[in-house]
Every structure is written in structure tokens, then in C-alpha cells.
Amino acid sequence: MQQTVNPDTQVEDSNSEPVSFSGQGTDKNVAAPTETVVYHTVKKGENLYRISLKYYHSKAGEEVIRKANNLKGNEIYLGQVLEIPLTK
Fold it and tell me: How far apart are CA 82 and CA 41, in angstroms?
């Protein structure tokens, strides 16, 4: 059974020990990161590494691009449109 608990209230857990809630995670002034998707068309001479550097400024972005586009390796093709997820 679920129960609504107000911040700073004490409830008992299944071990019958009091558990305190102090409003953790309720700060409404903190903005959650938003994700934007940019579409990149592969141009002559580009590879996954160069595209990663352009959008993420590091090689680590290669994996993000691979996941977003279901790529298994590093092969991309001229004219291919890639989804580039960016977090702001």
C-alpha cells in the first residue's frame, strides 16, 4: 500500500523503525537537464571522431553518437544523417 508523505514527517518502514523525510529532492529552483537532438549530415572527409569533436569536444562523444544511431562500429557514410543528442 502506498502512502503520501509530507516533507518533515516521520513514517515507519517495514522494520518498524522511524524514517525521517526532510524534503530531499524537492528543490524547485534546480532545473533538470534538457536534451536536444541535432541532425548532422555526414560530409566528405568526416568520420565519427571528427563529428564527436565538433559536438562534444572529445572522443567520448563517439559512443553517444553510436548509441543514438544504433551504430555497431565506426562506419558512417557520405550523406548519412546522424542524430546528435546534446544535453543543455
Answer: 6
Within the chain, residue ranges assigned H as helices are 48-56, 61-69
- Do residues 19 and 11 make contact, with C-beta atoms less than 8 angstroms apart? yes
**Does the predicted model carry a pTM greater than 0.90?**
no
Taking residue 39's Cβ as centre, other Cβ atoms within 10 Å add up to 8
- Nearest residue to 9 (alpha-carbon basis) of 20, 24, 25: 20
Report whether 34 contacts 83 (CB < 8 A): no
Polymer length of the chain: 88
Long-range pairs for 63-69 at CB < 8 Å and ≥24 separation?
68/37
How large is the average pLDDT for residues 6-15?
43
- Is 46 in contact with 40 (CB distance < 8 Å)? no
